């Protein structure tokens, strides 16, 4: 194959010199280069800031801390505000603090604090103090809801002249207040503050039916869910025509066994479903409840199960639950006793196996291999189960001729596999096997060139990133806007070429036509 023949050093240099040629690179091609270069591990750090700003790619777990520090002081508000899209796990308390406190525009500062509240981000002690004393009331109101706000500051905000600030500060300050201080809030001149204080008051003191029906407590759903209720009110709500209120009642942690029994046979399936997930009922009671459960639905780990992950006896008991969501929540524990792991690995619900593969260090190798048959990985656990520490690593060569392509491709993971097997797999009839060959670092230039014409797009893109591609081929891929982004991820691009590719624009050499060029000939 002519395209894959060996190149001399002179030919490689000539190919790279011809990348830019005498014609301007189309802007759409340069835009794709910018995106691709951000995923190129050979990209120099000093080029990353400009590329991130140009492409708007602020997200991702691998955004370097020093790059975030540069973005924090960027003159463009859109750039600074986009940092919050990286999520709370990407910004440290110090970075969150610098981002918010540096904003002189009141609207910007308020917007960032609001997002920080939603992300449950934490700040430095100095930042908490400054935000609690912010001259803008709505900023102080949001600051009162920040996670980690010192109690002393929350108490101080209870005397703020703005009612919305006092209202926001109630939840954080309430546990530290004595009876007299609580009475002051319960008698606050603002009805919103009084309602917030009364809701907190009724976390400990039962809500009478008359008080609930008066509407003075505000959000009825929140009151029913969180408050201690007088028996008369609880009984009234259990028979209420509004299913949303009965559903809220089913989530109330203070219900009597008799009321739980009533709600367990409620005509609304969402009410019965909430009762079935309560931590305070027996497994016999849970199994007797008729509830709706979609095995293909997306569910979060039950908080009360997650809180018990370090309790072996609780995990042992809950792993035998009749409810799939409880067993799935157990499988999210990082460590589990051997008997619990064995039970979950044999569970009838394969999502339990998946969660065990994604989260538990003790997942058995045989089960991980089973999960591999039908799962490639997710955004939250990329690569699992194949990247699990206990995934089988040896003895995989026996699968090289397996009729199942999911198993066949694993042969490349065996430490005794050879470059010859990689080349053989470039001709495999199944696209997943060819894709694994295209990603293998042992892939030859000949194999990579062959895969550039693969009928499967993912295989072609993977082959485009192969560092053994001849320079003249890689240059052609970079000149074609259809392949430019993936070709720009290729680590074989020389450092000097990367720098020229990262430029915002390029003027054609003097005397050239200055028109856009198409793909270079190969």
Automatic annotation (TrEMBL):
<protein>
    <submittedName>
        <fullName>PE-PGRS family protein</fullName>
    </submittedName>
</protein>
<dbReference type="InterPro" id="IPR011989">
    <property type="entry name" value="ARM-like"/>
</dbReference>
<dbReference type="InterPro" id="IPR016024">
    <property type="entry name" value="ARM-type_fold"/>
</dbReference>
<feature type="region of interest" description="Disordered">
    <location>
        <begin position="502"/>
        <end position="522"/>
    </location>
</feature>
């Amino acid at each position: 194959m002519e395209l894959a023949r060996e190149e001399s050093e002179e030919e490689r240099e000539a190919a790279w010199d011809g990348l830019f040629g005498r014609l301007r690179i189309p802007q759409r091609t340069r835009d794709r280069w910018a995106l691709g270069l951000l995923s190129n591990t050979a990209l120099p750090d000093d080029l990353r800031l400009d590329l991130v700003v140009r492409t708007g790619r602020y997200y991702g777990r691998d955004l370097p801390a020093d790059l975030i520090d540069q973005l924090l002081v960027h003159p463009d508000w859109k750039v600074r505000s986009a940092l919050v899209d990286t999520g709370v796990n990407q910004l440290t308390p110090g970075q969150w603090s610098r981002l918010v406190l540096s904003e002189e525009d009141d609207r910007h500062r308020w917007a960032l604090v609001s997002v920080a509240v939603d992300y449950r981000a934490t700040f430095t002690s100095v930042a908490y103090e400054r935000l609690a004393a912010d001259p803008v009331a709505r900023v102080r109101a949001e600051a009162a809801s920040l996670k980690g706000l010192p109690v002393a500051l929350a108490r101080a905000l209870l005397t703020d002249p703005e009612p919305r600030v006092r209202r926001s500060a109630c939840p954080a300050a309430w546990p530290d207040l004595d009876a007299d201080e609580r009475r002051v809030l319960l008698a606050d001149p603002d009805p919103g503050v009084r309602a917030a204080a009364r809701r907190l008051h009724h976390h400990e003191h039962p809500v009478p039916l008359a008080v609930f029906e008066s509407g003075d407590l505000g959000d009825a759903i929140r009151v029913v869910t969180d408050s201690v209720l007088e028996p008369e009110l609880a009984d009234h709500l259990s028979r209420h025509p509004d299913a949303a209120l009965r559903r809220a009642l089913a989530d109330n942690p203070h219900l009597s066994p008799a009321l739980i029994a009533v709600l367990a046979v409620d005509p609304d399936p969402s009410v019965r479903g909430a009762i079935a997930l309560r931590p305070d009922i027996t497994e016999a009671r849970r199994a007797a409840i008729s509830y709706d459960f979609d095995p293909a639905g997306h569910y979060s780990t039950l908080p009360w199960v997650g809180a018990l992950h370090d309790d072996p006896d609780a995990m042992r008991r809950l792993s035998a639950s009749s409810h799939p969501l409880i067993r799935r929540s157990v499988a999210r524990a990082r460590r589990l006793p051997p008997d619990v792991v064995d039970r979950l690995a044999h569970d009838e619900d394969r999502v339990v196996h998946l969660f065990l593969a994604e989260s538990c260090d003790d997942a058995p190798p045989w089960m991980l291999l089973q999960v591999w048959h039908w799962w490639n990985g997710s955004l939250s656990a990329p690569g699992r189960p194949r990247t699990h520490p206990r995934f089988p690593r040896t003895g995989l060569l026996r699968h090289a001729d397996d009729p199942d392509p999911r198993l066949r491709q694993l042969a490349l993971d065996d430490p005794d596999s050879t470059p010859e097997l990689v080349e053989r797999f470039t001709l495999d009839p199944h696209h997943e096997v060819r894709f694994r060959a295209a990603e293998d670092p042992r892939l030859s230039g000949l194999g990579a060139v062959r895969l550039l014409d693969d009928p499967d797009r993912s295989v072609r893109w993977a082959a485009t990133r192969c560092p053994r591609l001849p320079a003249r081929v890689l240059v052609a891929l970079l000149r074609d806007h259809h392949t430019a982004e993936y070709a720009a991820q290729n680590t074989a691009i020389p450092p000097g070429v990367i720098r020229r590719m990262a430029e915002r624009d390029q003027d054609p050499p003097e005397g050239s036509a200055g028109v856009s060029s198409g793909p270079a000939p190969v």
